Amino acid sequence: MINRTIAPAYKEINQINLIQATPRLLDNNIKLFVVNAGEQELVRIEFIFNNVNWDVNHPLQAFITNSLLIEGSRTMSSYQISERIDSYGAFIQAEYGFDHSTFTLYTLSKHLDDVLPLVKEILTEATFPQEELDTFVRNQKQKLLISLEKNDVVTKRIFNNSLFGDSIYGYIVNAEDYDKVDRNQLVEYYKAAYQPNNCIIIASGKVDEVITEKINSFFGNGWENTVQSTKNVFSIPQKKGSLYYTEKPEALQSAIRIGQISIPRNHADFPALQFLNTVLGGYFGSRLMANIREEKGYTYGIGSGLVSLQNVGYFLIASEVGAEVCTLTLEEIEKEVNLLRTEPIPEEEIELVKNYMLGSFMGSLENAFSHADKFKSIYLAGLDYAYYTRYVQTIKHINAQQLLELANKYLDYNSFNIVITGKK
Amino acid sequence: MVNFNRFKLDNGLMVLVHEDPTTPMAVINILYNVGARDENPSKTGFAHLFEHLMFGGSVNIPSYDEPLQRVGGENNAFTSNDITNYYITLPAENLETAFWLESDRMLNLAFSEKSLDVQRNVVSEEFKQRYLNQPYGDVMLKLRPLAYKTHPYMWSTIGKELSHIEEATIDDVKDFFKKHYSPSNAIMVVGGSVSTKDVKILAEKWFGNIHSGEKYIRNLPVEPVQLEERREVFYADVPLDAIYIAFHVPDKTDQGYYEVDLITDMLSRGNSSRLYNNLVKERKLFTDINASLTSSADPGLLIIDGKPAAGISVQEAESAIWDVLNSFSSEQVAEAELNKVKNKIESTMVFAEMSLLDKAMNLAFFEVLGDANDFNKETERYLRISANDIIQRAKATFTKENSSTLLYLANK
């Protein structure tokens, strides 16, 4: 008979193999990065543009420009773009983030010759038809009305604003902002942001020399820089330790989001602070989950995170909890944060989190796309692959004393902004 | 094409192995052939509550999550109306830890009162977070009982009401385990950097001596064919009116399912789809419209949901949806349109092969439906559909008698 009370032997992870991106310069000096891997005959090509020219009077300019890329170009209507892309079984996706606007193509390699010209036209000759803008604004305003009924959304808006003020990271979008958008702003932004010297391309999948050359012939030629744009740079106002409470008398649950300004990925302490964050609220077995969900049953889920942006990082804890236990939850969160500052983390827990994080890192390298994502994280933070070596080393060798110091340096409950929507 | 080997242990546990040497990881996916449809109508939400309790410690191992995290693994689970599915991803070198954990909880649970107490609360909070404290969050709780009058798809996996979860007892938990959680009611898929030979040895070692249990024979009431249009109006504190229309469609093993799946894509996949282009872009009657399928083991639903634009009456909006649905019978389906949705499906299938976990889950689900290899035949089933099949299927599906309409209206 086997003894089921004894865990099988296990091995620690020693080797993590990253498939590195190969750089290449297109004829017009766009940087192309290629992650060539995988069995399937398919590719993902991402065009990443910095967000530029932030103007608080036109807060939606970059977002709507990105959203309307696929809504009309010189020879194609919105309908035709969609129909033609779909007919090749390809997928296109415009995605807007705080720091970057991205346009992504997914396609089977056999259709590249048909699909790339369409993408080229979208990126260089989008037309932003007035009618499409009107439709988009109408739809978005309705969506906003629904979002504002969601406590977690309301909470997030207030939280970001509490940390970042009216910068692109913190601006609270209202319905009137949509009314202020006119087509000229989009055309102007398109000219400024969607041009070669503001673009990098990351291609992943089975991307051989032939495909790389195709990318060069379409995007390295016949696409020239026009105007100069201004990079977004922010000074972040520090409003620490404030409480923002929005009462919703009918709420069954309260949404909570608390946290403070922190460090971005390119800071030397970032990997170690990620470790500390994982202990507190970064995985299913974390202290916040163990206490507030698995011990007390106050919530379906609670987590913490360390977010890295271009200019700054921030730390947050978020949950939706039973309205009647909102105050109790905050007390428990405070206890857990303070515990990290006063008590060394037991060796056994450090060992567990170490193994969990290494396994999770290895598991996140599933395919060519995930390897490309890993590259994107470092490249956009101004780092190189040495970061991952340092990340793995930090996780392997971190000790309780270092974590105690980090907690005292970076996690201060009294400095957290606390946002609650619901009841308390 | 997803290759696999298959063997069965003497106790009835079905094991599938998908060898994928391109990854250093392994997955174990265990599907128990029990879902919300197998619940007692007065104790709904139980299969899902039980899924939570599967993480509350087993007979020889007090904590499930901790030893797994210690070897670099992650896990989760979901419950649907049809099945309950548990999965682990971990470094392939530590595969045996997953066998140890999964076999012990198949052997027996700890049945802790404390775990039951806590998970009742956790699931109640999940109920509130996902269904009650969200605008339109409870719509499926209203639409299912309108569309199903007999079949247990009339309730959602979360259950009919909070009280069912609050009243669950430890005896209910024990009975449910005995009835459904045994080798003869489970399918295990092991995938990744593993060999069938090693998996066989590990499966025998850890699962081989678990008592087979009684095979659960499912005998659910069949939903009678709907003969009359059904309608319900519901008012809530939401910002906008919404329209939901559900149609009965074939189950996932039926060729008709593949036809309605293509129809669903023609209706609402992408900017050039019929509902979106016609009602949002051209006529500007809606700000949002979608069509979706429940993809279930028993006959499911095709659901259309839309939000009319400001100033458009619900009546006008609803009748415009029908205009689009009726276009399948009044106009030809162009080959180009059919090819468009087929190509999209074909490439989706190729992209799906990039995820090890997705492959393992799909093999398990198709195995419980009859044969894991049917997963590999899906593309062919889509490709053989003709324009005429689409027209006939649409005509049969989009009738008033086959529809259940829920008007979810804003309190003025």
From TrEMBL, chain A:
SUPFAM superfamilies the record matches: LuxS/MPP-like metallohydrolase
An example molecular function term from Gene Ontology annotations: metal ion binding
Domain of life: Bacteria
Peptidase M16 N-terminal domain span: 62-138
GO BP annotations, alphabetical order: proteolysis
Coiled-coil annotated spans: none
Record keywords, A-Z: Hydrolase, Protease
Domain Peptidase M16 C-terminal: start-end pairs: 180-355
Documented EC number(s): 3.4.-.-
Pfam families per UniProt: Peptidase_M16, Peptidase_M16_C
Protein name, entry field: Zinc protease
Organism expressing this protein natively: Arcticibacter svalbardensis MN12-7
Phylogenetic classification of the source organism: Bacteria, Pseudomonadati, Bacteroidota, Sphingobacteriia, Sphingobacteriales
UniProtKB/TrEMBL annotation, chain B:
GO molecular function terms attached to this record: metal ion binding; metallopeptidase activity
Keywords: Hydrolase, Metalloprotease, Protease, Zinc
All copies of domain Peptidase M16 C-terminal, residue ranges: 169-344
UniProt record, GO biological process: proteolysis
Keyword Zinc: yes
Domain spans labelled Peptidase M16 N-terminal: 15-129
Source superkingdom: Bacteria
Family: Belongs to the peptidase M16 family.
Protein name per the record: Putative Zinc protease
